[in-house]
Design goal:
The protein is α+β, with helices and mostly antiparallel strands and 104 residues long. It is 26% helix and 24% strand. The protein starts with 7 loop residues before the first strand and ends in a 13-residue tail after the last helix. The protein binds zinc ion.
């Protein structure tokens, strides 16, 4: 595994590197045994566990869902409402760039 610059994370679907704040972060919290979605890195978290990152492309969400890539990265199943939430967040995106929605 090459070392990644600390501010960058890899999308589980397209494997490109993105700035952390541009990715969705899905965390499996070992202590509570729950899966949580963080939409921006600004949300503070004290969760401990595995994380999977997904870029803000609908194609990547579809790839991730089809290949169960998030589940594999987290080594657990993820609730449908997380996928629905991701889907809803991406639907509002304009192609060619995203603007941070205040409604998230
Ligand atoms: Zn991606």
């Amino acid at each position: 595994m090459p070392r990644l610059p600390s501010q960058y994370r890899q999308c589980v679907a397209c494997r490109n590197l993105y700035f952390r704040s541009d990715l969705f972060r899905i965390i499996y919290d070992r202590q509570q045994q729950t899966v949580q979605l963080l939409q921006t890195s600004k949300e503070k978290t004290r969760l401990f566990g595995r994380s999977a990152y997904l870029c803000r492309a609908m194609a990547c969400l579809q790839t991730a869902m089809k290949g169960k890539k998030i589940q594999k990265a987290l080594k657990t199943s993820i609730p449908d409402d997380i996928l629905i939430c991701l889907n809803d967040a991406l639907k509002g995106n304009h192609p060619g760039g995203y603007t941070e929605s205040k409604n998230l």
